[in-house]
Write a sequence for this structure.
């Protein structure tokens, strides 16, 4: 019987953590806590940037986009995971799976390019400070941010369109807890070489290209900082880059571990956990890094708290 005559798959069953007795009950609360902290932390960063005029600079403009992306990446996967933890069968419909693949790939790829844009912002600020206002004008920042979102969506649309061409011949069990391209390709029964080729090409250009750009940017930044004679100015320059460098290391490290680790040698649970960490760790860590290591963000947070305290005191007096 040919592939064309096979009954189309209408839903997929997730096998991740399926061999752990009562594992879903114990995993629900940690996943829920991580998701809530992720959303609230990134929402706090985004809100502070909108409320405090001192944070309306290119660096914080891009940081607000990063916060939105982190909330989106978690929201594409974690709520469905939580719902499945409460059900006996861990399932997702075919259409929901395709939608999850599209949005997850779009947000992930957008964030990769956005991190490169943020590195360019730091390069201009440190290496070309006299031209900063012109090179990073509000119009330029808007164009750069818009380009990252559009580029991510177009690239993801290509991956999703190719995924809809896959046939599964009745096989609907995915060794994962959310829909992602690699595990979906593994259960396809037709030729998926074009899908794999596009993934590798995208990894090279959409992943490797921005990473190489970030490395080069910080190479120039480091060379410029080392030429500065004032130790105080050096420390200030390093501190403006520290948060971004930390975020880049965590994000690309998790991405490398998720999409480029060996396919053999891991149990299903370990493989699922490693993949899931990519959607959990960077989104929850990013707001912590920018809030704990950034004096401007901490100052803005204190200012908001003080204003709230004054407002309550004024209401009480009245």
């Amino acid at each position: 019987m040919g592939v064309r005559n096979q009954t189309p798959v209408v839903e997929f069953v997730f096998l991740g953590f399926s061999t752990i007795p009562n594992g879903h009950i114990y995993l629900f609360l940690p996943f829920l806590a991580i998701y809530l902290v992720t959303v609230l932390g990134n929402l706090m960063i985004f809100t502070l940037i909108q409320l405090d005029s001192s944070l309306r600079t290119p660096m914080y403009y891009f940081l607000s986009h990063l916060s939105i992306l982190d909330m989106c990446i978690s929201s594409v996967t974690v709520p469905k995971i939580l719902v499945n933890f409460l059900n006996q069968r861990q399932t997702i419909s075919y259409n929901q799976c395709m939608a999850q693949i599209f949005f997850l790939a779009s947000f992930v790829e957008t964030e990769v390019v956005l991190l490169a844009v943020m590195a360019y912002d730091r390069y201009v600020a440190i290496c070309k400070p006299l031209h900063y206002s012109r090179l990073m004008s509000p119009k330029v920042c808007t164009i750069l941010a818009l380009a990252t979102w559009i580029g991510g969506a177009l690239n993801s649309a290509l991956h999703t369109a190719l995924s809809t061409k896959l046939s599964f011949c009745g096989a609907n069990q995915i060794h994962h807890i959310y829909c992602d391209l690699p595990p979906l390709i593994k259960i396809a029964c037709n030729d998926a070489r074009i899908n794999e080729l596009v993934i590798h090409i995208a990894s090279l250009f959409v992943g490797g290209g921005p990473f190489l750009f970030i490395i080069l940017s910080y190479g120039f930044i480091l060379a410029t900082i080392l030429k500065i004679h004032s130790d105080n100015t050096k420390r200030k320059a390093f501190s403006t880059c520290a948060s971004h460098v930390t975020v880049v290391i965590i994000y690309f490290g998790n991405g490398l571990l998720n999409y480029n680790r060996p396919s053999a040698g891991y149990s299903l649970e370990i493989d699922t956990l490693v993949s899931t960490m990519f959607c959990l760790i960077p989104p929850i860590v990013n707001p912590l890094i920018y809030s704990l290591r950034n004096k401007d963000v901490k100052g803005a947070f204190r200012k908001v708290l003080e204003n709230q305290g004054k407002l309550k005191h004024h209401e009480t007096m009245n």
